Amino acid sequence: MSRQTGFGGQDSDGRALVWAGATAAAVILLLAAGVAIVWMLGGRPEDLPVVADQAPHTPTPRALSFNQRAATPPSSAESPTPEASDPGDVPAVDLAVESGGGIVIEATPSLMSASLEGDVATEPATILDASSEADFSPFASGSWAATETGLVNEGSTAVAEEWLRLASVANPDFALEAEIRVDSVLATVCDQSFGFAGGSPSAGLVFGAGVIFPCASDSPRARFTNATTWQDGYNADPLIADATFDPGDEWRTYRFELKDGEMRLLVDGEEILKGSADPAIDPAASDVETGIWSQGIGLEVRRVMIVAPAE
Q1: Alpha-carbon distances of 27 from 20, 21, 24, 41, rounded to whole Å
Q2: Which helix (H) or strand (E) holds 15?
Q3: How far apart are CA 310 and CA 304, in angstroms?
Q4: What is the domain count for the chain?
Q5: DSSP tally for the chain: helices H, then strands E
Q6: Residue 186 is part of a domain; what is its CATH number?
Q7: Sign of the C-alpha dihedral, residues 84, 265, 229, 160?
Q8: pLDDT digits (tens, 9 = 90+) for 20-67
């Protein structure tokens, strides 16, 4: 049997083998080209970001602890704060921490107008304005001490002590004002008292304005007295006028005014007692002194202001 040959005289089987090899080579080349393209588009290994070494995580304990949390107070709408035209218009504040957490801002009664009622100058002269340890240090003596919080009397003695002189004024018209808090009342005695004093020692007339804790009653009383003979004890001073008043243990602003023989005692801006000095101090007296006393009462005084008509 004769062998068939393809076109050009070649064996058809050999030609098929040649075509198969060429096809395989082409496929391999295409695959290699595709790998090269993917490699170029993906970037080389050295271009890839490297993850830094990290510290191992601490395992979370399986035991759970529950901490009691204080209830969050409900938020309230904020009120706009009025702009003060002068720093002196902003009232002083006292911060107190409540037992449940939160800070409460309580307004301290601002000093009343320094003007005395009547036909005196509308802007009296300020004789004294003390509100720091440095201000009170010159007055600290006897049972009184100057501290960072103000002028302090522990009230540990019931023996009458001469009233602490604070300032002299040129006439018997003045106003003495102080922010005071009662800390304690001596338990071993009764008729404990505290207050202000003012008058002319040379004229033999000194008047007191204060509070007494009487023996026969549980109700403290505000009173005016003739305090000229202080050595007999302020509880023994001749009474001029009195009224029921309990100072409590809060900060209060006390003000004693004496003008033309008329006396007023105000607490936190409210008049609680009024009376007349009889006899009145001579208007020409120029050695008038003002001060404060405590007899068996623990006191804190954080500000004292004394004003008198301008000369």
Answers
A1: 11, 10, 5, 21
A2: helix 12-42
A3: 19
A4: 1
A5: 2, 16
A6: 2.60.120.560
A7: negative
A8: 676 777 767 766 666 556 445 554 444 444 444 443 333 333 333 333
Overall pTM surpassing 0.85 (yes/no): no
- What per-residue string of b and e applies to 34-51 under the rule 16 or more CB within 10 Å gives b? eeeeeeeeeeeeeeeeee
| Residue 70 covered by a domain | no
Q: Is residue 26 part of a domain?
A: no
Residues 6+ apart with CB under 8 A from 92: 107, 108, 110
Q: Determine the structural domain holding residue 147 and report its residue range.
A: 121-308
In a domain, 153, yes or no: yes
For the four alpha carbons of 170, 172, 175 and 181, in that order, the dihedral sign comes to positive
Mean pLDDT over residues 114-132, rounded?
A: 69
Residue 233: inside a domain, yes or no?
A: yes
pLDDT tens track for 182-215:
999 999 889 999 999 999 988 889 999 999 999 8
Q: Which residue has the tokens 């075509």?
A: 19
Q: Bigger pLDDT: 230 or 292?
A: 292
Separation CA 158–CA 160 (nearest Å): 6
Instruction: Extract the tokens encoding 208.
Output: 């007191």
